[in-house]
Amino acid sequence: MIDRRSLVIGGTTIVLAGYGISAPMKVGRLQAWAMRTGPGPGLPQSYPLDHTAVVGVTTSKQWGCFGRTAAEDGEEKRIIAEADGDELWATEIGGADGSAGIELDVTGACQQCSNRLLLPAGIDVNKAHGNEITTPLFGKYGFGIPALVTRIKDGAHAVNQNFPGRISDRAVAAAVKHVQVNNTEEWSVVEGYLESLFRPSLGPDWPACKADLSHVYYALYNYREALFSQYSKGHITKADFVTRLQGALSGAIQLVAEIVTPSKSNAAVAILPEVQAAFVLHNN
């Protein structure tokens, strides 16, 4: 039955036909969580590293992103980002296993899984400790962006089948734009970390070092993309892909250490643990 309501304006009665006047439907709110975790292989015990997870506030949905959820016990856990976002859409992007299409330590890690789930809210886990490690390796959203774009669109379509018009074309386009980031945007994340780490000690030498460090990053970016292309086409095995990616990272570690070593020093300088942490992949 259609609900008809009368509105009197200046003595004239206007009949409003429809299904009633109500506030816009609240589709949800997503939170990005960071939880202190162990350093993992290759990292010093003192290095701060976070596991990331996602929470759907309205539905109380918990995504562990290959690890513990924010609802589980543990110290030093915190919300690092929060915004309104469609929780049903996030659920569709995550899929039945909640991986959002990520294969752990092959196409991404917890940070990349979290970033995919957070797309409906337009937020990310950039403030998590350890994001500077995984971004140079996997990118912000992991390998396989074309498949992720399909997942975003298919997820929105699935939600709209049950709730017509709930997710707009504009929202889908915005999410797709987020994942089509370029290497320059990724470099800004890594640059900020390296600057905070090395600029105080390098002083006036920092600008020259930063330029060389950017070359290391872009070379790694181009190599990883070409390597994944060969893996996705079946030209190399998964084991070969991971091994060769690890080799590229090892080379990057060595080069970064050489770049930030003061040239005026004649003494051999050990590779700083923090430098290793900036480019290390879990060596399974």
Features:
disordered N terminus, disordered C terminus, 6 strands, 284 residues, two-stranded antiparallel sheet, four-stranded antiparallel beta sheet, 9 helices, alpha+beta, single chain
C-alpha geometry: globular
Tell me the strand percentage band: 5-15%
Strand order of the largest sheet: 5-4-3-6
Distance between the termini: 62 Å
Radius of gyration: 23 Å
The helix/strand order is EEEEEEHHHHHHHHH
E-strand count? 6
Give the helix proportion (percent range): 40-55%
Low-pLDDT regions:
1-24, 264-269, 279-284
Structural classification:
alpha+beta
Major sheet attributes: 4 strands, antiparallel
How many separate helices? Answer: 9
The overall pLDDT, averaged over residues, is: 83
What is the fold's blueprint, element by element?
Blueprint: E1 3-9, E2 12-18, E3 29-37, E4 49-56, E5 61-63, E6 77-84, H1 87-94, H2 110-117, H3 131-138, H4 145-162, H5 169-179, H6 183-202, H7 206-232, H8 238-260, H9 273-279
Antiparallel strand pairs: 1-2, 3-4, 3-6, 4-5
Helix pairs in contact: 1-4, 3-6, 4-5, 6-7, 7-8, 8-9
Model description:
There is one protein chain. This protein has nine helices and six strands. The chain has a four-stranded antiparallel sheet with strand order 5-4-3-6, with helices on one face. It has a two-stranded antiparallel sheet with strand order 1-2. Helix 3 crosses helix 6 and helix 7 runs antiparallel to helix 8. The N and C termini lie far apart (62 Å).
